[in-house]
Input
Amino acid sequence: MIELRDVTKTFPKGKGGEFRAVDGVSLTIGRGNVFGIVGHSGAGKSTLLRLVNHLEEPTSGSVLVDGRDLGALDARELREVRRSIGMVFQQFNLFRSRTVLGNVAYPLRLAGASRAEARERAEEVLRFVGLQEQARRWPEQLSGGQRQRVGIARALATSPDVLLCDEATSALDPQTTREVLELLRRVNDELGVTIVLITHEMDVVRSLCDHVAVMADGRVVETGGVHDVFARPEHPVTEAFVRSALHDLPEGPALDRLRARHPGRLVTVPVGADASASDELSRLLREHRVDFRIAHAGVGEVQGRPLGSVTLELRGAEGDVDACVARLADREAERGKVGAR
Output
């Protein structure tokens, strides 16, 4: 649905210099995917999103939407492609002078729909997002979550093929964030809309996305299926994001407290959907006459499958514990990570 081919975007920077906001990015986003782009502030992810709907033109490289190179289109053709792309913003960007219904109908009127057609379609999408009862209210009378639902309804009004979400949940509390993510999942499942989601929260990616690209300094440093990236992060930036979402590794003062409470050998082992790995762990502990106690656990779900790690306190003769840890490391080398804490 969307393809970026070696795309670079530079901006002028004092005294004739330039700043590369996006640096040689190539990505393919399949039709019907929910694709997350994650990175810290300044990583280039929002600029990348603006390249997809041609609000920014690439300095070099090509951006294709549904097979059409945006840089090769004339003004009329570009407007046609943009009508197939909806946009949802962090700060909602609603017109305070228009009712909820008026906000949702606005892009339809711009596209040439009659007042009656725009009203009918606006009421339809408001029903879809669960706000039909709020149609006559003003944006300031709504909660943050309701306003974001209006923003989603407005983006859906023209029946887009692609929905671009720029930090769409960053201004919301955790409960409202979950509700908005559930709505976006419905948009994808029931309407078949391809969603590209910009975020700095890996937990949002875990909850909603099928695929993810991790950005740092304008480049994509890692990309893949969400479960694969969570299970085997390769870049340090990705590993830090994954750790922030799974909360599975005790560190710093938390690790010091664990060591104080558990004087035995602390070992962290991965937990995944493969039940045989747990059986293998139990067998190895029995074989080496090593007892254990769970010192810390952080296991969540990623794409419906358990993922995380458990930190165990191993207790037994020192030689038996050493042999057990060595066997664990050998067995887990191809599946994940095992490490003494």
Q: What stands out?
A: The chain has two domains: 2-245, 248-340. The chain has a mean pLDDT of 89. Residues 166 and 290 are 50 Å apart (CA to CA). The chain is about 40% helix and 30% strand.
